[in-house]
Amino acid sequence: MTTTHPSVTQGLARWASDLQSTGIPAAIRARAKTSLIDTIGVSIAGSQTRVGRIARAVGLQAGSHGWSTLFSSAAHVSEQTAAFVNSVSAHALDFDDNCYAGVVHGSAVIVPAALAMGQKVNATGGELITAFVAGSECEYAIGAASRNVLYEQGWWTTGVLGPIGSCVAASHLLKLDPEKITSALGLAITGAGGTKACFGTDGKALMAGRAAEAGVVCALLAAQGARGPVDAIESTNGFVKLFNEGVFDPAAIDRLGSHWFSQEPGVDIKRIPVCLSSHAAVDAVMHLVATHRIRLDEIESIVCDVPPMVSRNLVYTHPETVQESQFSMQYAMAVSLKFGTLTLEHLDQKLLKNNELASLMARVHMRTGPLWDDAKLRQSAPEGAEVQLRLSSGKVFQLFRATARGSVGSPLSSQEIGDKFIACAAPAIGNGPAETLLSRLRTLDGDVFVRDLFESETPT
Questions:
Q1: What digits encode the pLDDT tens for the residues 363-390?
Q2: Domain boundary, last residue among 381, 401, 421
Q3: MmgE/PrpD C-terminal domain location, by residue (predicted)?
Q4: Domain with 211 in it
């Protein structure tokens, strides 16, 4: 179908094709580098998980060879295989970042795709960052234009929107012209999908991997001359109608380059390795316990008044698996209270049988009260929480948090980002290689070649 005016995908393609490093503000490039560092760290950790190992085994069975690195492995494979496997690893622990422009896990999909393609074409770190920004901003622009309708309907936005970001990043590194990027996007969008039924299962990480792989494959297909629909967004049978109930705000697309979605609403970096929906509540209860010096045996009940999004995401009140525990307010609260924090070590099947944790979990309750009838509050605090902590003495303490530590308004420091990276990477590749890799990544925005980043990264 030929359109009279440029379609949405044509607009994205032209903007992405024209984007140069000099057109990206230094603050945005710095944010991009932080996302790259954080995502590579959690990917290396995730490569050691059961689902990460499954994805790697399947990827290696494909027998394809290339320039692209599999994290925590000496193997080099094709760019599409690396994008799939490393993206699964990036999301395996649910420790990767999040953006409310679409409510997507952007980096877990875009970073592996961009890295894999960057290694194929022997890109520099500076080129990698530019491609990552192009992919992120295009994906977040579509997410913002969707006004979160598809997320509220039960679509898993990372699966639906992720191929857009990975496709644009891969296309930018291949230096495709606007016409070919438009075709690549058309192929990526018409083949996208994913539902939130995957939460608490291997499907969530595996679908992230498929989104990364799809973007890379569609870029490669378009580079060879494959054509996709120009109007994949606005077609009668396209994204807006079928995924988003006809809702779409084209102004979000028009703002590309003058507004940076990675800055506003921004990208949230996770402090603890569970669903972001629990983080604000955990921060609130930990603040109350520390401020008032509350002992665990004094706690009678903890009531978390949360917005509808949180209630729908944290569905496991009595988790039976590690994956279910990552979508449980009760588990996040109980572990944080008992151990003073929640780390990767606490994603342990044995802890689900711990009697003290079970007792704490039984005292944690979640509800969505009238507070959240306010649409403006739901928008400003989509995963916020008002926590009421009641003691056996009858005393009651209460605290509201709109966002969690690690959010745009309360970012983790450079030291905390580095510490998280080492905590994720060192158990898999050793402390020395992890420190070396972190040092290289911190100087990524320059002429260093992406192929050289991982040359000493070998499993212990």
A1: 999 999 999 999 999 989 999 999 999 9
A2: 401
A3: 273-436
A4: 8-268
